[in-house]
Write a structure and sequence with these properties.
7-stranded mixed sheet; 12 helices
């Protein structure tokens, strides 16, 4: 059934907006969620947290006038329950049927689509370069981006197409001109916002090393070679070629203080090497990743912050709420960074998670081979990112 096909409940059902639900979870409140999506969708992607109790009962279990007692027994009647679905229609109906039976329920506005629209900006407090650095966080997919601003200018690293207007509005609110939109690589889990920002008058930048993958619009943008520098006020953003996750993977050193590593290194793991060349090319890519980490990343000062393009459920944020960590801390906590090459390759290839949903279509879109509208683009990237080599944290191992 489509969301529009569900009847309006006979009782009034309160709704909760996604930001409010996230606020409760972030505050450590106990939250009980009844996820009314199909089991396969639930297992792939859901709202989790240390204080979140999540129950999956598909919406069709509630369509009959007489709901099975075994279904009702699974739903707590001693606390508030938030019902959610994909877009909000089924959850309102399910919440209504439960409210009629005396349950304390509300439902999530716009469902998981609404959850995917949350995008927080958090200041990286340990950044000590010129200007101010913000980390954008999308909790639904773990996507991270970075906004540097100084002296009336700004640059965004790894922007998402879905939030193009947000970047422009934030720059306007800060009283700065968004000068650069920079991608670290051809992403496989979300649609890049670089081209849309370039069309809005921002200078789009992609790694020169990524062009050979078949980027169809390369002539329209600036190609960043290893060592190229981009000035943002008094700050400098320097391209550092770090292949491995992809052949074009390029990190950006933000005024000597934070290395935006894209999908090369995360605070809890290292990159997976199979999204460009598949399983056959993964071993060689893993060796290339090892070289990049050892020769280009870990040679930086220990207090250089690492900020990846993603975080997983296994990641632990820093005290400032950002998913950043000094290189020295990661070397101490992550054995993968001190292994010899063969052991590193074995570890990276041992237990990779499922590939990101729709990753082939997303790559084709980011290369410019597929044209999708905004709604299609948003739908393509729903779900977890799965760009790390492991679903579990490698830090502290």
């Amino acid at each position: 059934m489509n969301a529009d096909d569900f009847p309006t409940p006979d009782v009034d059902v309160d709704s909760v907006d996604p930001d409010s639900l996230k606020g409760r979870i972030d505050a450590g409140e106990d939250v009980t969620i009844l996820d009314a999506r199909m089991r396969s969708d639930y297992e792939e992607w859901r709202i989790d947290g240390e204080t979140v109790t999540s129950i999956n009962v598909p919406y069709f279990e509630f369509l009959d006038d007489e709901i099975d007692d075994e279904v009702l027994d699974r739903i707590p009647d001693d606390r508030e329950v938030t019902v959610l679905c994909a877009k909000g229609g089924a959850s309102e109906y399910v919440a209504g049927t439960l409210a009629e039976r005396g349950y304390d329920v509300d439902h999530l506005e716009d469902g998981m689509n609404g959850w995917a629209s949350i995008y927080d900006a958090v200041e990286v407090e340990r950044y000590d370069g010129a200007g101010t650095l913000l980390q954008y966080q999308r909790p639904s997919s773990g996507c991270l981006g970075y906004l540097l601003y100084d002296g009336g200018e700004a640059a965004i690293i790894d922007p998402l197409r879905a939030f193009t207007d947000r970047y422009l509005a934030d720059a306007d609110d800060l009283g700065v001109e968004l000068k650069y939109a920079i991608d670290t690589h051809v992403h496989a889990d979300h649609i890049s916002g670089v081209r849309d920002l370039d069309a809005a008058g921002v200078e789009g930048v992609i790694p020169a090393a990524a062009v050979d993958r078949g980027v169809t619009y390369a002539d329209e943008l600036t190609a960043a070679d290893d060592g190229d520098a981009f000035e943002v006020g008094d700050a400098t953003v320097e391209a550092v070629y770090t292949p491995g996750h992809t052949t074009g993977m390029t990190s950006y050193l933000v005024d000597g203080s934070l290395l935006a590593t894209g999908d090369g290194l995360f605070v809890e793991s290292v990159a997976r090497p199979d999204l460009e060349e598949g399983d056959e090319g993964a071993p060689d890519a893993a060796r290339l990743l090892y070289e990049s980490l050892q020769e280009r990343v870990l040679t930086l000062p220990d207090d250089t912050l690492i900020g990846g393009a993603h975080f997983s459920d296994a990641a632990v944020p820093a005290d400032d709420g950002t998913y950043t960590a000094p290189i020295g801390d990661l070397v101490e906590e992550m054995d993968a960074l001190t292994m010899d090459e063969d052991d590193f390759v074995d570890l990276v290839l041992a237990d990779m998670p499922p590939r990101p949903a729709n990753y082939e279509d997303i790559i084709a879109t980011n290369l410019g081979r597929n044209a999708v509208d905004d709604e299609e683009a948003f739908t393509l990237e729903l779900g977890p990112n799965n760009c790390a080599a492991s679903q579990d944290s490698l830090a502290g191992d």
